[in-house]
Amino acid sequence: MSETSVAGPSSGTDLPCVLIVDDDAVTRRFVRAVLEGLGLRIEEASDGERGLALAQELNPNVVILDVTMPGLSGVEVARRLQGDAKVLMLTGVDDPDVEVEAGAAGASAYLVKPFSPRELLDTIEQLVGALDLPDEDVARTQSAAVEAGERQLLIAAEELSDSMRRERERSARLEETLDELRHAYLETVRSLAYVVESKDAYTGQHLERCRVYGMALLREMRLDQELREAEYGFLLHDAGKVGVSERILNKPGPLTATEWRIMRTHPLIGYQMVGGIPFLRAAAEVVRYHHEMFDGSGYPEGLRGAGIPLAARVFSIVDAFDAMTTDRPYREAFPLEQAASELEKMAGTQFDPEIVEVFVPMCERLLPSSSRAAG
Questions:
Q1: Of 83, 169, 207, 260, most Cβ neighbours within 10 A?
Q2: Tens digit of each residue's pLDDT (9 = 90 or more) over 70-80
Q3: Is 3.40.50.2300 the CATH classification of the domain at 8-164?
Q4: Neighbour-count burial for 254-292, b at 16+ CB within 10 Å, e otherwise
Q5: Rounded to the nearest 5°, which phi and psi values hold at 371?
Q6: Is 0.90 topped by the overall pTM?
Q7: d(CA 242, CA 235)
Q8: For domain 198-374, which architecture applies?
Q9: CB 100: neighbour CB atoms within 10 A?
Q10: Other CB atoms within 10 Å distance of the CB of residue 328
Q11: What pLDDT shows up at residue 44?
Q12: Of 259, 323, 322, 319, the residue nearest 290 (C-alpha)
């Protein structure tokens, strides 16, 4: 709708003129819908400056003004009006001081939003009567009130429907974009993780299995959405091993004390690598703390219990499970029952006992996917 418009069949220069001045298009539409059919010429303006200019041009019989508008306020417009126009002031705040101010500025009537079609019609009828309109025009207000109410309900329903449709479309587009970004991030992380994994000849698909096990455990705990970024940490937990010699990584026998000191630096090296990447900040906690133990005997910081980030506590369990159930250079894979028993034995010392209690019943259905991945 244009800023200034005339109501269809009632548009004649000899008809009483009503000027609606409000920066809210919905309010202007509502007022127009209520007043149509009353034999009035209806004009609109979306701000005080334009409203004042139209009032000077048209010399309306009634000016409907919103109190608060950008630029020139409704009160200021009322003060500057010339001629005999009756002023109906609209406001979204039920404040006696504002009503007094509006009255002092020349307002003949005052309505607080939201108001009903009947309230508006009764007010306009008072102003119309003061303008000595023909009696038959005034008598039509009762039927017009019903029709206007129906029109406004239809308008509101259409606007609500359109608004909900647009919101659904916007949400769908946003979700699609986020999914695409997440997929791209995951593929980037996978690429980086596989570079690390390629240094260790004996781990096979260890990273992917840990990701699968870890996300399955988070889903079982109903934390897969809250800790969604942990998936990246499951893949990148050993990123710091790029700073460790392949001779140490692939050594077939036990490590010396010096070699262990070097090996134990990989969580901090990994954290330095990924901690500054914005979308990997949460995952970086898994990288840094995945070798902490529940009783505080782990490394690099000796954290204990709930002081260890939850995603890292989850990962330490699935990491150990995968290590036990796959062949290593120095031993064959444990049977499922033995691996589960070891997890339960170390619950409360190495592992969070509550998470172990959730994970152990899952082992049987997870292990076949491990076998397929390693094969």
A1: 207
A2: 888 888 898 88
A3: yes
A4: eeeeebeeebeebbbbbbebbeebeebebbbbbbbbbbb
A5: -60, -40
A6: no
A7: 14
A8: Orthogonal Bundle (1.10)
A9: 12
A10: 12
A11: 92
A12: 319
Contacts of 96 (CB under 8 A, 6+ apart): none
The helix/strand/coil state of 203 is coil
> Which residues face 328 on adjacent strands?
331
Mean pLDDT of 297-318: 95
| Residue spans of beta strands (DSSP E) within 107-209 | 109-112
Where along the chain do its domains lie? 8-164, 198-374
From residue 202, give the alpha-carbon distance in Å to each of 111, 197, 336: 80, 9, 20
Token pair 């782990």 in the structure block, residue: 298
Q: Which two tokens stand for residue 109?
A: 């009537």
Cβ–Cβ under 8 Å, residues 212 and 166: no
Q: Tokens standing for 228?
A: 């969604």
- Which two structure tokens, joined as six digits, stand for 250? 């692939």
Structure tokens at 192: 């980086």
What whole-number percentage of the chain has pLDDT above 70?
78
CB atoms < 10 A from the CB of 357, how many? 12
- Tokens at 201, concatenated: 């000849």
The residues, any chain, with a CB within 8 Å of residue 91's CB and separated by 6 or more, are 66, 67, 68, 98, 99, 102, 110, 111, 112, 113
Q: Confirm if 120 and 31 have CB atoms less than 8 A apart.
A: yes
Q: Locate the DSSP E strands across 92-207.
A: 109-112
Question: Which residue reads 């999914």 in tokens?
Answer: 179
pLDDT at 7: 39
Q: Are 80 and 53 in contact (CB under 8 A)?
A: no
